[in-house]
Structures are given as C-alpha cells and as structure tokens.
Write a structure and sequence with these properties.
By secondary structure, the protein is mainly α. The protein has one domain. Helix content is 95%, strand content 0%. It is built from two helices and no strands. The longest helix is centred in the middle third of the chain and has 89 residues. It is rod-shaped.
C-alpha cells in the first residue's frame, strides 16, 4: 500500500535496493559454499594423512615390541646364565660328595 504512494523515482530505488539485497545474499551463499568445499577437501586430506600416520604408528609399535623383547632377553641372559652356573655348581657338589 505504501509502495503505491511513492513516486516513480522512489519505486525504482526500492526495487533496485531489494534486487541488490537478493544479489548480495546469493553471492554470500555461493561464497560460503565455495569456502565449505575447500574446507571439506582439506579435511579429507588431513584425514587421509591421519590414517597413514596411524598405520605407520602400528608398524613402529610392532617394531618397538620386538626390540623391547630383544632388550629384555639380553638383560635376562646374564641372570639366567648365572643361575645355570649356580645350579651346575650345586649339582657338582652333590655328586662330588657322594
């Protein structure tokens, strides 16, 4: 109703203003979609890198377990050898005394 009371210049201005608002909204939506697409791509790349690093971590943990086992075995070797020598000594004493 109030639109009809305006003169031709004001009506053209109002039409242009409304059109500009819609164009701005459309441009912003397009820009947001473009930015979101970029983020999705980056996120996908990061997720791929995370999966690769997790696979490497599993391999390294497996290797670390093997190394840990070897180190424990090396550490226990002298202890076991010492016990064997003690047992042999006791065994020799028992049979030597008979």
């Amino acid at each position: 109703m109030t639109y009809l009371r305006n003169n031709e210049v004001v009506r053209k201005f109002k039409k242009s203003l409304v059109k500009a608002f819609f164009e701005l909204r459309d441009a912003q939506e397009k820009n947001i979609k473009h930015i979101a697409g970029g983020y999705k791509s980056q996120l996908s790349q990061k997720n791929k890198k995370i999966r690769e690093l997790e696979a490497k971590l599993l391999l390294l943990e497996s290797e670390a377990d093997k190394v840990d086992y070897r180190l424990k075995a090396k550490a226990l070797y002298p202890i076991i050898l010492n016990r064997i020598e003690k047992i042999e000594a006791e065994f020799s004493k028992e049979f030597a005394g008979q």
